[in-house]
Amino acid sequence: MPVEAPGRTYPTMERLLQDLHIRHELNAPLAPLTWYGVGGPARILAHPSSVQQLAALAARAHEEKISTYVLGNGANLLVADAGVDGLVIQLDDPGFKQYRVENSIVTVGAGFDMARLVNQTAKEGLGGLECMAGIPASVGGAVRMNAGGAYGDIGRSVRRLTVMDASGQVYHRDRDDLLFSYRKTNITARYILDAELELTPDDPDVLGKRVKEIFTYKKLTQPLADYSAGCAFKNPPPEPDGQRRSAGKLIDTAGLKGFQIGGAQVSPQHANFVVAERGASASDILAVIEHVQTVVRDTFGVPLEREVVVWP
To answer: Domain boundary at 94, 128, 146, which?
Structure first.
């Protein structure tokens, strides 16, 4: 990775933040920051406290051609055993966790916790996010991948986004310029800063019960207590006749529930979850994922696309 160039003011990654006054750690463990709990360290883990700090850091990293990664709640992430030889940025400072309500529009920072947002909006009588119950994520990460499930997705509530490109320029994306589809968006900006969500006034008691029902259902049908990154694979596109296909059902039908390599296993409870035991490695998890992809492709002719993000 090209991290040095003759004549540059900041020729090494360690000096990248030297005058920006940004809290950071060198050779920072990432495993404790992910739901899998595995993987190696980041060469630098930075925690900017404001948009201005992030913009300065982004511009400098962009100029020096340093690979950057944005870490949210780590719920949909698998970090390789060797770690990340680059700059990892986590928007976990209060400066990126703002929350305000005006009429039925909620403006929320990218670092705000999704579970907290679901509960808070329900208590305030604002409906639309109940479908996100039981989905662990930061708001920025949820918007980036249009997180959701059988009950809906976050994209349908997004009214406007504030984003920043790789060079530190800030701009807005409005609803008519945004496309949300299954686990996919047309957001190309490197950083999501905040989101405006258009919600619907409703009875707080009704919303609270709905959130509890959805969460209870997921708790009964998914291995939420295990180390995992949620669904390992996206559902394949529908059949030519429009019939929907489930990745979990394909994996189950292929007889892969309980399949194990090292400390990683296809969940016996839900086949679209690859769970990890204590002591598992990222290599174990990747090996199980790749085996599942091979068997499903060979058995049904269906390629499964990972939903789990793998660094690097």
So the answer is: 94
Instruction: Indicate if 84 and 106 belong to the same structural domain.
Output: no
Q: How far apart are CA 62 and CA 16, in angstroms?
A: 11
Which domain does 30 fall in, by range? 13-94
Cβ–Cβ < 8 Å for 66, 16: yes
Q: Considering the domain boundaries, does residue 232 fall inside one?
A: no
Overall average pLDDT of the 122-139 stretch: 97
Q: Give the end of a domain, one of 61, 94, 127.
A: 94
Same domain, 28 and 126: no
The DSSP secondary-structure symbol of 10 reads -
CA–CA dist 154, 143 (Å, integer) = 7
**Is pLDDT at 1 greater than 80 in this prediction?**
no
What would the pLDDT profile of 214-242 be if each residue is shown by its tens digit? 999 999 999 999 999 999 999 999 988 88
CB 237 within 8 A of CB 243: no
Percent of the chain with pLDDT over 70: 96
Distances (CA, A) of 167 to 65, 101, 164, 172, 295: 10, 30, 8, 15, 42
Contacts of 85 (CB under 8 A, 6+ apart): 1, 43, 67, 312
- Centre a 10 Å sphere on the Cβ of residue 237 and count the other Cβ atoms it contains: 11
Q: Read off the pLDDT of each residue in 14-31 and give the average, rounded to a whole number.
A: 92
Same-domain status, 116 and 203: yes
- Residue 56 CA to residue 46 CA, distance in Å, equals 12
Q: Are the C-beta atoms of 287 and 306 separated by less than 8 Å?
A: no
Q: What are the residue numbers of the active site?
A: 183, 231, 307
What's the pLDDT tens digit per position in 256-267? 999 999 999 999
| Alpha-carbon gap, residue 285 to 34, rounded angstroms | 14
Looking up residue 81, the CATH number of its domain turns out to be 3.30.43.10
Residue 238 maps to a domain: no
The model carries a pTM of: 0.93
